Every structure is written in structure tokens, then in C-alpha cells.
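Please fill in the sequence for the structure shown.

STRUCTURE ENCODING:
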């Protein structure tokens, strides 16, 4: 079943999405050549501390593409495309199963919100870096990167909210933030840049 909302109506409603307080959303220019219509925002997640103690621990980009009539590989008219990266502990980075775990985090995040989808694809990459010379006092870094796309099954804008919420949940999971307890909702306004 196709959404009865126009793409512009869906975007206006998506702009009202409020993530948990550690996530800062910013609308950014969307890629123009991938589909007839597109919308994108970035998200940065901080450690939740204040002032000088605040650090970015994860960042990502979410793109919603819409092609009336769809594309063969999409299996639908819409496509969610995402990239995210997060710092991980070096022990986690060394785990040979980290890519599979990262992919399962994505699928579990979608399933946990009830987001329906098909045609999922993507990659999970482990990244580690060591510093040398004058940079040697810096700590070695380990990250996980997830690039993924899937076709959301959208019957209402609420269905699209489920996909955005799943993406935010994935970012908080990968960044190591504790989940919100059941029954606890975020209160207040979305922290946005721009």
C-alpha cells in the first residue's frame, strides 16, 4: 500500500521528529541525483555531559529518497539510506564478530520499533588508528561504521517515524548510551542546529 501523503507533506512532518536529548539533528542538503525527491539530516550524539566534558561519541546521516514508480532494486517508492560512525572500545573493535553484531544492531533496531521494511543491504566496517611521532600522546582510536539502506513500508507518516526512531536507536546502541527505560519518553524539544 502506498502512502497518501505527498513527499513534501511527509518531510514537513519528519521535521517535527524529536529524538532523545543526547541527539542533535540538523537538516542538511540531500543528494540530488539518486532520486526525484530526497531529504536528509545529520545527527550527532554527545556523551550527555556539560560544557568542556561534552564529547561527540557518534555521528550519522539519514537520507530519505523517493522515486515515484520506484526503482527495481528498491522494491518500493522510498529508500532509507544511512551512514553512521561511533567510537568503540578497542576490545570490541578486535572482536571478529563485530561486523555481524553491527548489522544485527541495525535489524534489531528496526524490528524493535515495529518498522516494516524489505530489500535491506549494507556494510559494517571496523576502523582502528594508531598515532605516531608528535601525535603519539594521543590515544589510539577504534570506530565502527555502518552504511545501510532499506525500503521502508509506509502506510502513514507514523510508519516513517518508526524508521527514523530505529535509526536514532541504532546510533545510541552503537555509541553505548543506555536505552531509555520502558515507559519513559523524552521530554522537551529537539536540539537542532541551523
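FILLED IN BY: designer on duty
SEQUENCE:
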Amino acid at each position: 500500500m502506498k502512502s497518501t501523503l505527498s513527499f513534501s507533506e511527509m518531510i514537513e512532518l519528519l521535521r517535527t521528529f524529536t529524538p532523545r536529548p543526547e541527539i542533535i539533528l540538523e537538516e542538511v542538503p540531500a543528494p540530488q541525483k539518486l532520486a526525484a525527491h530526497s531529504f536528509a539530516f545529520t545527527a550527532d550524539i554527545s556523551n550527555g555531559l556539560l560544557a568542556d566534558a561534552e564529547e561527540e561519541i557518534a555521528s550519522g546521516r539519514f537520507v530519505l529518497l523517493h522515486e515515484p514508480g520506484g526503482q527495481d532494486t528498491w522494491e518500493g517508492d522510498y529508500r532509507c539510506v544511512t551512514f553512521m560512525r561511533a567510537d568503540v572500545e578497542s576490545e570490541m573493535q578486535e572482536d571478529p564478530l563485530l561486523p555481524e553484531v553491527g548489522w544485527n544492531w541495525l535489524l534489531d533496531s528496526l524490528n524493535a520499533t515495529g518498522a516494516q521494511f524489505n530489500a535491506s543491504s549494507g556494510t559494517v566496517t571496523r576502523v582502528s588508528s594508531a598515532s605516531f611521532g608528535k601525535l603519539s600522546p594521543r590515544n589510539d582510536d577504534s570506530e565502527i561504521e555502518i552504511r545501510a539502506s532499506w525500503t521502508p513500508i509506509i502506510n502513514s507518516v507514523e510508519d516513517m517515524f518508526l524508521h527514523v526512531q530505529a535509526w536514532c536507536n541504532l546510533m545510541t546502541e552503537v555509541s553505548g548510551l543506555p536505552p531509555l527505560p520502558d515507559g519513559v519518553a523524552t521530554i522537551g524539544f529537539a536540539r537542532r542546529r541551523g
